[in-house]
Amino acid sequence: MSQHRHPGASGRAGAVPALPDLPEATVARLPEYLRALHNLADAGHETVSSEGLSAAAGVNSAKLRKDLSHLGSYGTRGVGYDVALLIEQIEYVLGLTQRRAVALVGVGNLGHALAGYDGFASRGFRIAALLDADPSRVGEEINGLVVRHVDELPAIAVEESIAIGVIATPAAAAQRVADQLVAVGVTSILNFAPCVLSVPEGVDVRKVDLAIELQILSFHEHRKASLTALPATGGSALTALPGGLAATDTQEAIGT
Amino acid sequence: MSQHRHPGASGRAGAVPALPDLPEATVARLPEYLRALHNLADAGHETVSSEGLSAAAGVNSAKLRKDLSHLGSYGTRGVGYDVALLIEQIEYVLGLTQRRAVALVGVGNLGHALAGYDGFASRGFRIAALLDADPSRVGEEINGLVVRHVDELPAIAVEESIAIGVIATPAAAAQRVADQLVAVGVTSILNFAPCVLSVPEGVDVRKVDLAIELQILSFHEHRKASLTALPATGGSALTALPGGLAATDTQEAIGT
DNA sequence: AGGCGCTTGTGAAGACGTGCACAAATCGCG
DNA sequence: CGCGATTTGTGCACGTCTTCACAAGCGCCT
Question: Residues B58-76: what's their mean pLDDT?
Answer without folding.
Answer: 96
